Amino acid sequence: RKVFFDTHALVCLLEENGFTTQQSEVIVSALVKIVSTNLDMIYKDMVTKVQQEIALQQVMSHIGGVKKDMIILEKSEFSALRSENERIKLELQQIKKQVMDEITKVRADNKLNLNLEKSRVKELHAQQDRALTQTDRKIDTEVADLKTMLESHKLDNIKYLAGSVFTCLTVALGFYRLWM
Predict the structure, then answer these.
(1) Closest to 38 in 3D by CA, of 13, 11, 1, 9
(2) What Pfam families does its record include (predicted)?
(3) Using an 8 Å Cβ cutoff, are 15 and 21 in contact?
(4) 80 pLDDT tier (thresholds 50, 70, 90)
(5) From the centroid of its chain, how far is CA 169?
(6) pLDDT tens-digit profile of 87-135?
(7) What angle, rounded to 10 degrees, do the helices at 7-16 and 21-45 form?
(8) Closest CA relative to residue 24, chosen from 41, 37, 13, 11
(9) Phi, psi angle pair for 94, to nearest 5°
């Protein structure tokens, strides 16, 4: 077996770094044994080319046998599958027809219910509109009453303010006349 590194150079390197010749040789010998052992373990798991070709031929023969079995199975099962498929198609068509009938019934019922709900909603909206119109009229009346009352109070306030101003002016002129 070949060693893929220079053992003599490693011994020299170890001696340069403070090992004795005997210690260096022992270390290198141990490394060679470790590498050899590792290579032996690796080679045990490997197969040769001949073994690989034999295994490939065995696999190919198994594949050929499986192909033959598949062809035989396909021919025997194909007619059974075809008849089963036809039966399922017929059942599916019947179910499809039933579902379409049910859908038509449900659509008709939904249209009827929808029209009833529309008429109820329209009537409810009409009632709400009437109530809203009455409420708007009441609010408008109340707002007009409040505006009238506000204008009335505004005029009263202006009268009182004018009276207060003239009274204060009269008092001020009186004081002015007294002191002058």
Answers:
(1) 1
(2) CCDC90-like
(3) yes
(4) confident
(5) 82
(6) 999 999 999 999 999 999 999 999 999 999 999 999 999 999 999 999 9
(7) 140
(8) 11
(9) -65, -45
